[in-house]
User: Which sequence fits this backbone?
């Protein structure tokens, strides 16, 4: 594993750092996180920030220039991610577009789809959501019931999705639907691009415990889309979907790790200076610091493999398991250090409350921790599958 960055890459990191330090609005953390802005204002703030990133050339760093990217490599992308997290830059509103849809279209999309959608993802002209989970199909995605049948020269969609993050603000959805009821469950599914303004789509919000709205139920009644909106071959959606999940799991969430870790370090510094850190808290901080280092080296190992053209495959589950669990440890220690102040109306308390809720969901979405452990056991370590008991 070669983890030395070249002189050019070190310079690139410095350039990114300098640009971020001079370009982030001074009040952005308060503006975007506390007090929580009303949704339209927060959205406008984040869209504006992402356009500035794009204009400065720090968006789509490793995507081809032909589709609006920067045409650089995964190392530069990694460096931008690290620097964004280090300074706690705002996260993208369009994570699903950037982290799932873009890579999928670049690998299996038609030329027309790439030329149309990829630049729009980068300029945040389109915001995407992901319509995979259904009321009885989450971990067991092969059980989805939403149907797509041929009709009116295109496809007619009927069914229901749930936990659809950003559906209330998305312009497009990457949708998994059953196209062949007679095929085995893992066959007979197809992926589609579904514009969210198509007649027949109803989005109903689900409020979080903390009062925010992030995900939704999406009901589809005779929604008609063109065949040109299909991604990949008919009935081959499972393979493409597994690719999507691979991207989502491998996505190191590096910016988030960096950001959460920086927030925790700042809090710990403050607690040390006012003498409120206990020995037990120091031990936990030491454990987290060590695990973050381990995770960083895992990230670098995978980065090295990607640079050599290798695919990460099932091993992406290792990363997913690690990052989601470390984020929860960071959140828990943050709450412990804040103690009774966690209820305070201060920006730092508000941020840790938010981090805590975000981290809770991270061991569930993109495949729960139990599912990651099954994948690691069976497909990475080659352990035998448990025998299925007769019902
Ligand atoms: C914050 C958040 C955002 C999300 N955003 C989206 C989104 O944008 N689009 C989307 O499509 N979905 C989204 N989801 C849904 C998510 O993908 C599902 O919640 C997840 O796949 C689990 O499915 P489920 O909720 O149906 O739980 P289930 O699959 O019913 O699982 C319930 C429990 O059983 C365990 N379990 C299930 N099967 C096994 C097994 N074989 N072995 C061992 N344990 C098992 C699970 O680990 C879990 O603990 C989101 C979820 C969260 C929390």
Assistant:
């Amino acid at each position: 594993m070669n983890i030395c960055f070249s002189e050019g890459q070190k310079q690139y990191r410095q350039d990114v750092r300098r640009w971020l330090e001079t370009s982030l609005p001074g009040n952005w953390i308060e503006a975007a996180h506390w007090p929580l802005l009303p949704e339209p204002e927060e959205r406008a703030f984040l869209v504006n920030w992402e356009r500035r990133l794009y204009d400065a050339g720090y968006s789509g760093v490793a995507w081809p220039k032909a589709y609006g990217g920067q045409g650089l490599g995964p190392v530069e992308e990694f460096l931008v991610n690290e620097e964004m997290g280090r300074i706690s830059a705002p996260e993208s509103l369009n994570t699903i577009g950037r982290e799932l849809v873009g890579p999928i279209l670049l690998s299996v999309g038609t030329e027309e789809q790439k030329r149309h959608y990829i630049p729009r993802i980068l300029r945040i002209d389109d915001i995407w959501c992901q319509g995979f989970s259904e009321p009885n199909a989450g971990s067991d995605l092969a059980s989805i019931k939403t149907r797509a049948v041929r009709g009116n020269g295109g496809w007619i969609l009927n069914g229901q999705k749930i936990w659809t993050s950003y559906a209330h603000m998305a312009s497009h959805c990457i949708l998994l639907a059953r196209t062949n009821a007679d095929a085995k469950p893992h066959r007979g599914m197809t992926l589609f691009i579904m514009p969210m303004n198509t007649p027949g789509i109803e989005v109903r919000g689900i409020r979080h415990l903390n009062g925010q709205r992030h995900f939704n139920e999406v009901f589809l009644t005779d929604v008609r889309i063109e065949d040109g909106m299909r991604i990949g071959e008919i009935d081959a959606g499972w393979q493409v979907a597994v690719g999507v999940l691979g991207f989502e799991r491998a996505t190191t969430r590096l910016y988030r790790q960096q950001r959460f870790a920086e927030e925790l370090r700042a809090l710990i510094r403050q607690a040390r200076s006012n003498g409120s850190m206990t020995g037990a808290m120091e031990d936990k901080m030491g454990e987290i610091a060590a695990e973050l280092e381990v995770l960083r080296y895992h990230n670098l190992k995978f980065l090295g493999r990607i640079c050599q053209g290798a695919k990460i495959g099932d091993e992406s589950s290792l990363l997913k398991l690690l990052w989601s669990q470390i984020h929860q440890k960071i959140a828990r220690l943050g709450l412990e250090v804040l103690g009774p102040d966690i209820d305070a109306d201060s920006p730092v308390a508000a941020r840790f409350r938010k981090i805590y809720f975000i981290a809770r969901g991270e061991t569930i979405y993109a495949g729960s921790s139990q599912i990651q452990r099954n994948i690691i056991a069976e497909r990475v370590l080659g352990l035998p599958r448990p025998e299925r008991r007769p019902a």
Summary: Residues 129-133, 138-139, 163-165, 215, 361, 364-365, 368, 370-371, 374 surround flavin-adenine dinucleotide (CB under 6 Å). Residues 279-307 form the longest helix (29 residues). The longest strand covers residues 213-226.
